[in-house]
Amino acid sequence: MNESVSEPSTVGARLRLLRPMLTPLESRILNVAFEEGFNAATALSYVAEQASVSEAMVVKTAKKLGFTGFRDFRKQMSSYNAQPSAALHKEIALEDTQADIMRKVFNTAIQALQETLAIIDPEVFAKIVDAISAAPRRDLYGIGGSAQVARDVAHKFLRIGLRSTVYDDAHMMLMSASLLETGDIALVFSHSGRTSIVIDAVREARRRGATTIAITNYTHSPLVECADLVLCSTARGSPLLGENAAARVAQLTVMDALFAAIAAKDYERAERNLERTSAAVAAQRVR
Hints:
The protein is of the alpha/beta class and 287 residues long. It has helices at residues 8-18, 24-33, 44-51, 55-64, 70-81, 84-88, 98-119, 122-134, 145-159, 170-179, 196-207, 222-225, 244-265, 267-282; strands spanning 138-141, 165-167, 185-190, 211-216, 229-232. Helix 9 (145-159) links the parallel strand 1 and strand 2 (165-167).
């Protein structure tokens, strides 16, 4: 793996980003590697047995993930599993108390935040800040839970005077994208990066010359392939919660960081607009 991937705090997050490119058998091997018991003494035969695959398959998968072989895979995963952030995630069990469940859900979200921060490219972040700040038009796309993230972002932008429009309908997205021009922004939210509706809209927006920005959970996805700029969140899967819950927390926090950085670029204007928008809705609050 390259130098950035070998950082212990980023290994787990970056491997989860690659999961969509794995076969079901290869995913089973990765699941074993994420277990707490996987350490520097774990034997190749043990991993193969636990994943119900051959030892050759384990070695092949390790190389597919970017490691030089099983030993490199074991060494880096052991270092990752020893990280405090990796220890935060615990699966919810039937015998858990309500307090246990609450703590596990919070810890999964905390892990998602810490590891998302570890993998964000500051240069890409800065380019997105500049692009959104300068854009004459900002259209936001998302379906389902991703649409809720888009609405939260549009609300924050409006508070500091950045007008944007959220679209969560396939036809409306395509119509919006067809009217975008050079300098405009298409900001797209998709956990999987495989939702055809938003992918079609992004392709249309890019064809029209707009800058396309994707916020997603996987680097290897059709959405990433057609986006100009990408920021990835990362979250551990859970049979009960899935990945979406923690990933949504991470995505909202990424957008909070973008919002703050955009506001800081022209703080006086942002502060002036924030005062105006706050005053406009103040009368609606019960005293």
